[in-house]
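Tokenise the fold.
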Amino acid sequence: LGAVDKLLSASSESHSAKEAGQLTLFGDVGLPMNEELFALSPDCDHEVSQREALAWEKELVGVYVSSHPLQQMTVELTDVITHHTKDITEDKDKMPVVIGGMITDVRQITTRKGDSMGFVRLEDLHGNIEVTVFPKLFRESRNMWVADKIVIVRGRVDVRDGRPGVLAESVQDHVTATRIIEDTTSVEYRYRNGAA
């Protein structure tokens, strides 16, 4: 990214020279052969974290190119997550689920009683789903419901107007949830007993 300014500047100079009819040393019109352009290196000395690089990819290209931030989470939480978003269908209405993913959107509304609640779009590697967060949980865990945060949500499937969603009962940061993997009991047992 540090080289982008230099490239844009060189391109601008080249176009200006071409419009003015200016020739290079060898008589052609075009981009000057500037050694600095071939030795472009970022001006920053610090290493870029994978998270930062992925954020740049998403911002500049619009998609993740090298990897998806959820790939590592999916591997780490295989024994914790009970369903992927694509698995949550109409026939699973009222079923308890544990899903994990990245929050892509949070829509906060105020109820008639004046309490805040949220409608959260949660994305995993297989798709996305809307998670409804009622006022009590939204208030208790407000700092968890922010865009780009990776979370584990426990709740129940709720089908409305033929579209499945999840009613959140609890939320946990995925980093905390990875510690649960050391527990050797089944996912279903841990979920029923509140340990997962």
